[in-house]
Amino acid sequence: MGAVAREQAAGARGSLTREKILAEAARIFNRRGYHGTTLDDVARALGVTKAALYYHVSSKEALLFQCHQVLIEIALEGLRRARERASAPDEQLRLTLAHYIEGIMDQLRGSVVLVEDGALTPAHQRQVIAGRDEYERQLRELIARGMRDGVFVPCDPKLVGFALLGAGNWIPKWYSPAGSRAPKEIAEAFAAYLVRGLQRQPSAEAILPLAEAGASA
Amino acid sequence: MGAVAREQAAGARGSLTREKILAEAARIFNRRGYHGTTLDDVARALGVTKAALYYHVSSKEALLFQCHQVLIEIALEGLRRARERASAPDEQLRLTLAHYIEGIMDQLRGSVVLVEDGALTPAHQRQVIAGRDEYERQLRELIARGMRDGVFVPCDPKLVGFALLGAGNWIPKWYSPAGSRAPKEIAEAFAAYLVRGLQRQPSAEAILPLAEAGASA
Fold first, then answer.
1. What average pLDDT does range A60-77 have in this prediction?
2. What is the pLDDT of residues B194-203, one digit of tens each?
């Protein structure tokens, strides 16, 4: 993957990796809004100078664009891996969602999906929308296949697809890395619950992990 | 309800109702971010002067606070109505979610939940968080009751509660009033799907409305 290679290259120059920069930027954009954030804020949060940050990114807008692009890469990668690892549509959907949700929580980089629209240049905006459209199209196709195979009940794949994505995209609003749940646990519980809503004959087993006494997510 | 009475009073003075102001403000805050929006922008979108707007709201922050408060009122009202109309936990949850989701889509006022955090004064922020916490607490209690009654499979009500809310709160990101689906249809499909994921023995019936050829939501 291009992202990984670039990040390793950055990593070789020091601890300020592309991944760290993008995760921190996504978190700040989400908290303060794009217009309420400056590159100085991002540099301060990373504990580096603005000059060091400019070595990696040319502008605030480029930073936001890269945040979006990384998330789309992760989303599409989840679909590819799910197809390699499973053939049944419910299992494929479960793996796809778990990968996406874990990717969103990893360093909270998924926060970027909550940032206000209209901050990107029109060309970048078009590219991000095209990437998201492609992901949504493939998700809907997977849901439709599950319907054709009789594994899923009939539904509108477009509406259900939006419900799936919303459940995942909302996570940065409540998730805290200091909470008691590991990202992997949350991702698997969400994926199991969201697939269960479509299965014609879901198992009556518990959706794991169960609540702990006094647990906070 | 206080909101309705105030809105009727505003309505009597002309067409610039509190409801219209708040819905338009929520939409603009979501599109441009709180920091990227001015009261002039809101006035312009409503087709009124800034002075006319100031007759109704004292500041941009007060406007954002009221947007949040209206949505919390709607959310809690949905729980109350559901308790009046049904006793089974799955039916109560379905009615609760349908009310909340329809409320979010009505004039797109739900957009406010996507606005960046940290824009409210600390006192207002505490009030909004207390209202949301109360709604989430009651939702979790309803899910836990469904588990105790054997209607829902065992799960972590906190995690599932966040999934439900996320699916609904994400709607302003994709919903267009110009689309082919009525808010009521979308609300009912979402509620049916989200409750189905919890039911121990869900019906194998379709989640309505089904996809139309070439439909867009």
1. 94
2. 999 999 999 9
By Cβ distance, the residue of A36, A158, A198 closest to B35 is A36
- How deeply is A74 buried, as exposed, middle or buried, from its count of CB atoms within 10 A (0-12, 13-18, 19+)? buried
| Residue B98 included in any domain | yes
- In chain A, residues with a C-beta closer than 8 Å to the C-beta of B207 are 153-156, 160
Domain span holding position B66: 59-196
Residue B81 lies inside a defined structural domain of this protein: yes
Query: Which residues of chain A have a CB within 8 Å of the CB of B61?
Result: none
**A94-126 pLDDT per residue, tens:** 999 999 999 999 877 788 888 877 789 999 999
Q: Which of A104, A129, A193 to substitute to test the interface with B, most B CBs within 10 Å?
A: A193
- Please list the residues that pair with B22 across neighbouring strands: none
Q: Give per-residue pLDDT as tens, B54-67.
A: 999 999 999 999 99
B57: helix, strand or coil? coil
Scanning B153-212 for CB atoms below 8 A from A yields: 153-160, 162-171, 173-174, 181, 186, 189-190, 193-194, 196-198, 200-202, 204-207, 209-211
Q: Say if B48 falls within a structural domain.
A: no
Q: Please, what is the average pLDDT of chain A?
A: 90
Whether the per-residue pLDDT at A10 is higher than 50: the answer is: no
CATH number for the domain that contains residue A168: 1.10.357.10
Distance CA B59, CA B74 (A): 23
Residue A43 touches partner B, C-beta closer than 8 Å: no
For residue A122, give the 3-state DSSP assignment.
helix
pTM equals: 0.89
And the tokens for B165?
């809310």
Under an 8 A CB cutoff, do A211 and B156 touch? yes
The predicted pLDDT at position A161 comes to: 98
Distance of alpha carbon A3 from alpha carbon A143, whole angstroms: 29
* Other residues' Cβ atoms within 10 Å of the Cβ of residue A80: 12
Instruction: Tell me how many domains chain B contains.
Output: 1
- Does A131 map to a domain? yes
